[in-house]
Write a structure and sequence with these properties.
With 395 residues, the chain is an alpha+beta fold. The protein contains ten helices and nine strands. The strands form two sheets. Strands 1, 2, 3, 4, 5, 6 and 7 form a seven-stranded mixed sheet that branches. A two-stranded antiparallel sheet has the order 8-9.
C-alpha cells in the first residue's frame, strides 16, 4: 500500500503569498464546511433542499457582504479573503457558495453601490447578519445572455411604481425576504433599466420554486412573478440607470465564482488522488499506473493555473485595477477547468464516481450549471475577443 501522504492541492505554495488574516479567514471557512456543512450535504442533495439551519452561521462568521464597510455591520475584509471563502464554500457545494454569493454580490453590493443611505442603513446590517435573505431578479424566461431584452416593466404612478413581468432561475427566490429586481422604466421618452427593492409581502409578488433539477439540488432556485405589483417610490435604488448597473453586480459575482469553481475542482482532485492511492486493481493501487498518474498530473496543473489566475485577479481588484474582461477570463477558464477535472475524477473512480458516497458526481452536475450561469463560456469568450480586437462579435 502507498506510504502516508497529505493530499495538498497547493502545489505552487500559494499559501505563502497570503497574509495571516487571509489564512485565518480561509481556515474558519474550511472548518465550517468540513464540520457543519459536509455532514448535511448528501441529505440536502438527495432531498433538493438547502440547509436553512446554517444560514445564521454564515452571518455569524461574517461571510455575507464581507468586503463591505464595517459601518453597515459587514467585515470590511479584502477581496483575497472573500475569494478564499468562496473557494472553501464551493469545495463543499456550489449551492452553498451560490447562497453567499447572491446575498453578498447580487443583493448587498447593489444596495451599497446604488441605494440611498436609508436603504443601506436598513437592509445591509440585516442581510449581513442573515436576519434577512435576498435574491437578484435579472434573468427572464426568454432573456439570459441578452438581459437588455428584458420584458419586465415598471410604470410610474402616484407615490410609487407598478411592476409586471417574470424572472426565472433565481437563486434563493422562494426563501428570500427581499428581492433586488431590474425592470425597464420609461424616462424622458425612452426605456431605462432601473433597480428596485421589493419585499416579499408586496401584493402581486408571487414566488415559485423550480423543481425537477438534476443540478444545484442543494440550492433553492425559483421563479418570481410580478402582476400589478405596487411598490413605494422609496424602493427605487436611486443610483441605478441603464444595463451597466446590473452588469456591475454580475462582475462582483463572477469574481467569487472564479474562486469558487476552483474549490470544486480541488474537492474532485483530492477525492481522486485518495481513491487512486487505495483502489487496488491487478494487484496494485491504480494510482501506480501511468495513465492514472497522467490524469492526476493534468488535474493539479490546471488547478494551479486557476489558483494563480484567481489570486492575481484578487490583487487587481483590491488595487482598484480589475476590469470586467479580466473577470470574464477567470470565470471562463476556472469553471471550464473545474468541469473538466470533475469529469476526469469521475472516470478515475469508475462506477463509484456516480454515487453520492463521493463528492464528484455532485460537483460535476453542479459545475454543468456554473459553466452556463452568469455568462456562458461562449459569452465570456466573445467578451474577451471584443476586448482584444476592438470588434464586437455580438452583433
Amino acid at each position: 500500500m502507498p506510504r502516508p501522504i497529505d493530499v495538498n492541492a497547493d502545489y505552487y505554495q500559494i499559501e505563502e503569498l497570503l497574509t495571516e488574516e487571509e489564512r485565518m479567514v480561509r481556515d474558519v471557512a474550511r472548518r465550517f464546511v468540513d464540520e457543519e456543512f459536509m455532514p448535511r450535504v448528501q441529505r440536502c442533495f438527495r432531498e433538493n433542499s438547502f440547509p436553512m439551519e446554517l444560514v445564521p452561521r454564515l452571518g455569524q462568521l461574517g461571510f455575507l457582504g464581507m468586503t463591505l464597510p464595517t459601518q453597515y455591520g459587514c467585515a470590511g475584509l479584502n477581496n483575497i479573503a472573500y475569494g478564499l471563502v468562496s473557494q472553501e464554500l464551493e469545495r463543499g457545494d456550489s449551492g452553498l457558495r451560490s447562497f453567499a454569493s447572491v446575498q453578498s454580490s447580487l443583493v448587498m453590493y447593489p444596495i451599497y453601490a446604488f441605494g440611498s443611505e436609508a436603504q443601506k442603513s436598513f437592509w445591509l446590517p440585516r442581510l449581513a447578519k442573515a436576519e434577512a435573505i435576498g435574491c437578484f431578479g435579472l434573468t427572464e424566461p426568454d432573456f439570459g445572455s441578452n438581459p437588455s431584452g428584458m420584458l419586465t416593466r415598471a410604470k410610474k404612478e402616484k407615490g410609487g411604481y407598478v411592476l409586471n413581468g417574470t424572472k426565472r432561475w433565481i437563486t434563493n427566490g422562494s426563501i428570500s425576504d427581499v428581492a433586488v429586481v431590474w425592470a425597464k422604466l420609461e424616462q424622458d421618452g425612452k426605456d431605462v433599466i432601473r433597480g428596485f427593492i421589493i419585499e416579499k409581502e408586496r401584493k402581486g409578488f408571487t414566488r415559485l420554486e423550480i423543481e425537477g433539477k438534476f443540478s444545484f439540488r442543494a440550492s433553492i432556485t425559483s421563479e418570481l412573478i410580478f402582476e400589478d405589483c405596487w411598490i413605494p417610490e422609496e424602493n427605487l435604488m436611486p443610483g441605478t440607470g441603464g444595463l451597466k448597473s446590473p452588469l456591475m453586480c454580475l462582475t462582483q459575482a463572477r469574481y467569487g465564482i472564479a474562486w469558487g469553481a476552483t474549490g470544486a475542482a480541488i474537492a474532485c482532485y483530492e477525492s481522486a488522488v485518495d481513491y487512486a492511492r487505495h483502489r487496488v486493481m491487478f494487484s496494485r493501487p491504480i494510482g501506480g499506473y501511468q495513465l492514472v498518474q497522467a490524469k492526476l498530473v493534468s488535474m493539479i496543473t490546471e488547478i494551479t493555473k486557476a489558483q494563480l489566475l484567481s489570486y492575481r485577479l484578487g490583487k487587481l481588484k483590491d488595487a482598484g485595477k480589475m476590469r470586467p474582461e479580466q473577470v470574464s477570463m477567470a470565470k471562463m477558464n476556472n469553471v471550464s477547468t473545474a468541469l473538466h477535472i470533475s469529469r476526469i475524477a469521475r472516470d478515475i473512480l469508475g462506477a463509484n464516481g456516480i454515487t453520492d458516497d463521493y463528492p464528484i458526481i455532485r460537483h460535476l452536475l453542479n459545475l454543468a450549471t456554473v459553466n452556463t450561469y452568469e455568462g456562458t463560456e461562449d459569452i465570456h469568450r466573445l467578451t474577451i475577443g471584443r476586448d482584444i480586437t476592438g470588434l464586437n462579435a455580438f452583433e
